[in-house]
From TrEMBL:
Disulfide bridge map: 12-209, 92-119
Uppermost EC category: oxidoreductase
Binding, Ca(2+): 86, 136, 141
UniProt protein name: peroxidase
Binding sites annotated in the UniProt record for heme b: 85
Pfam family, one: peroxidase
UniProt xrefs under InterPro entries: Haem_peroxidase, Haem_peroxidase_sf, Peroxidase_pln
Entry keyword annotation includes Transmembrane: no
PROSITE patterns named in the record: PEROXIDASE_4
Sequence ranges assigned to domain Plant heme peroxidase family profile in this UniProt record: 1-212
GO-annotated biological processes: response to oxidative stress
Length: 212
């Protein structure tokens, strides 16, 4: 549709970022103002490459802060971008073991039971079983942070963020100030979506997003 109206003008990279922005907005989150003008890669699309750039599900605070610092984010922005976990689901095979360290908030027993019922050991090796990230999994809000503080986090990072002295104050702040979370998230979103992009005469503008 876009290519038919504006041939060779709008890149797939810009379409993807605008779609992500609108997904956040229509689910109740902030309306992020994003810079446009990205160009598409001239290399063949690769799901494996895209997946390899995502933070692993078992990553802790140190790893998360390192990844996002390399993209120009502050600690506050790093904690805010992790708040995107307020939407969606976690696949069962990504759930951490229940052997927690003293750097993690103990999991609420009721949640532990729910996860055991929703993700029996057999299907954990599959990608078809999942649990919701929080009770408002279709609403972009700050419930994620309150959940993390009360032992209702799903992933390792969810249970470590509240106790780490670098990130804990921001978790507490975002849990009580949704507007503050939205502001920090918007800043982080712009930095993340602007990192390593092609502009100017670099790359191409694809007529079809799944082809060169």
């Amino acid at each position: 549709m876009v290519e038919a109206v504006c041939p060779k003008k709008v890149s797939c990279a810009d379409i993807l970022i605008l779609a992500a922005r609108e997904a956040v907005a229509v689910s109740g989150g902030p309306q992020v103002i994003v810079p446009l003008g990205r160009r598409d890669s001239s290399s063949p699309p690769s799901y494996k490459l895209a997946d390899s750039l995502l933070p692993p599900a078992n990553l802790g605070v140190d790893g998360v802060l390192h990844i996002f610092a390399n993209k120009g984010m502050s600690i506050e922005e790093s904690v805010a971008i992790v708040g995107a976990h307020t939407l969606g689901v976690t696949h069962c095979h990504n759930l951490p073991s229940h052997h927690l360290s003293n750097t993690q908030v103990p999991m609420d027993p009721a949640l532990d039971l729910m996860l055991s019922l929703g993700c029996p050991l057999g299907p954990r090796s599959q990608n078809t079983s999942f649990v919701f990230n929080d009770p408002t999994a279709f609403i972009f809000d700050n419930v994620y942070y309150a959940n993390a503080m009360s032992g209702h986090g799903i992933l390792r990072i969810d249970s470590e963020l509240p106790l780490d002295p670098r990130t804990g104050p921001f978790v507490k702040h975002f849990a009580s100030d949704q507007d503050g979370f939205f502001r920090a998230f918007s800043s982080a979103f712009v930095k993340l979506s602007s990192f390593g992009v092609l502009t100017g005469n670099e790359g191409v503008i694809r007529a079809s997003c799944d082809k060169i």
